[in-house]
Design goal:
Elements: E1 6-9, E2 14-17, E3 25-33, E4 43-49, E5 54-59, E6 63-71, E7 73-78, E8 81-86, E9 89-93, E10 98-103, E11 109-117, E12 132-136, H1 137-140, E13 153-161, E14 166-170, E15 174-189, E16 192-196, E17 200-204, E18 209-227
Antiparallel strand pairs: 1-17, 2-3, 3-4, 4-11, 5-10, 6-9, 6-11, 7-8, 7-10, 9-12, 13-18, 14-18, 15-16, 15-17, 15-18
């Protein structure tokens, strides 16, 4: 296993005005993107809009998206229908779903975006439930995005580690991204040591591994797993 890790955070986001044709400010940061990864990621991003802010309705013709709401509450519009959302909610938007997000609360609305190319299928793969789903990681627990999405995202969960608890992640046939939502800790990969704190992400490319250890107050993070097709894996990892 390699000790390669991609470390990013939200401390220096870009200010983007008029996202998807709307007025107003969106704070944005790219946490990981396709170069250096083999799992079919388009990008992993963080975004934030202030009270009353809007990320305009738009349609993807090539990619699918997963929104993970981190803070605040709002309204997501899916194919013209509004759905209330709050921190902990997950929105899965399949290919061809028009979607937009509005901050309906009194604090910033922050969310993660995991975007990936859709996989063209000759016929619907079972069990595809519908083109979009809203669920909640805190109440429902781990989910399989494959019930809606056709791409490589196959596992999404909110993980809580007790003080001192340790978990190991290995990217042998998959790639992982972790985004810290609460607490502190440390990620160790070979001779690399990365402090973990809210707003920091760690992504493991294929062939790497890391151990995550919670600090004195525990550690909470969003964990996403993407499969890597055998054809995309180096010979020693097939």
């Amino acid at each position: 296993m390699r000790g390669t890790v991609i470390v990013s955070d939200t401390r220096g986001p870009a200010d983007v005005h008029g996202v998807h044709g709307t007025r107003g400010l969106t704070r944005w940061a790219c946490l990981a993107r396709r170069p250096g990864l083999l799992g079919g990621w388009e990008a992993v991003e963080w975004a934030s809009i202030p009270p009353g802010g809007v990320s305009g309705e738009h349609l993807h013709t090539r990619t699918e998206e997963c929104y993970v709401l981190l803070t605040g509450r709002g309204v997501v519009t899916l194919d013209g229908r509004p759905h209330p959302v709050e921190a902990g909610d997950v929105v899965l938007t399949g290919l061809g779903t028009t979607h937009g997000l509005r901050n309906a609360g009194t604090e910033a609305l922050d969310w993660l975006v995991i975007e990936m190319p859709a996989v063209p299928l000759p016929r619907p793969r079972m069990p595809i439930l519908r083109h979009a789903v809203v669920t909640n990681l805190r109440r429902v627990g781990p989910i399989d995005p494959g019930v809606v999405l056709t791409g490589p995202l196959r596992h999404l969960e909110l993980v809580r580690l007790r003080p001192g608890e340790r978990v190991e992640l290995s990217a042998d046939a998959t790639e992982h991204t972790v985004f810290v939502t609460a607490g502190r800790g440390r990620a160790a990969a070979a001779d690399v040591r990365v402090p973990l704190e809210p707003g920091r992400s760690v992504t493991l490319p294929l062939g790497s591994s890391a151990a995550l250890t919670a600090g004195n107050d525990g550690l909470e993070y969003v964990h996403a797993v993407l499969t890597v097709p055998p054809a995309e894996r180096p010979g020693d990892l097939r």
